[in-house]
Amino acid sequence: MFFDPMYFMFVGPAILFTIWAQIKVKGAFSHYEKIGASTHLTGKDVALKILEESNIRDVKVEEVQGWFSDHYDSQAKVLRLSPKVYRNSSIASVGVAAHEVGHAIQHAEGYAPLMFRQIIAPAAMLGSNMAMILIFLGAMISAFGLIKLGIIGFALAVIFQLITVPVELDASRRAKKLLDTHAIIPQKDLQGVTVVLNAAAYTYLAAALAAVMQLLYFLFRFGFFGSKRN
To answer: Does the annotation count 109 as an active-site position?
Structure first.
């Protein structure tokens, strides 16, 4: 089980896709963080402007340390941007900031996939943390009940990853539309934003694919597809 070549047949291609996606998004961000937006607005400026134009007054914009640590905290209603996004006026910074504001707008509008993701997040996190322990412990002591429980927990994490894809894609769609509608950046800058956000989309797809393939491996390995349980 611990050196099962079948695992790499299932998950290997997804791992390669994930590595490629990470390289692509880092490359896109690295390229466009060197190109300044024509309006000279920083990520913070863009976030505040879109929030104001969208009539959202109860969301704060803060700086948070880390690289690619940008996120929207729906519980605290805080949009947190990494230093490179918060302080810089690059095309990459504008795109990332607008994307995160997209999540704030989703939350304000009660966007169904985001709401559902928030509901299952605690169970998905618990399932993700406990799944491997239960599966490997169950395999070691031949306790199929533990394996089954671990797979159920992992399946919750997979559902979370799958829901994340439309949530993130919708946030990017909103970001590009808002930047254009409110004339925050010109069309020539918007093309660069599109490249950055499209590259980021591959990382969401890669994470979901890797999770699905790992779940399929567990189902196959432990006999849910009719193979021998051993």
So the answer is: no
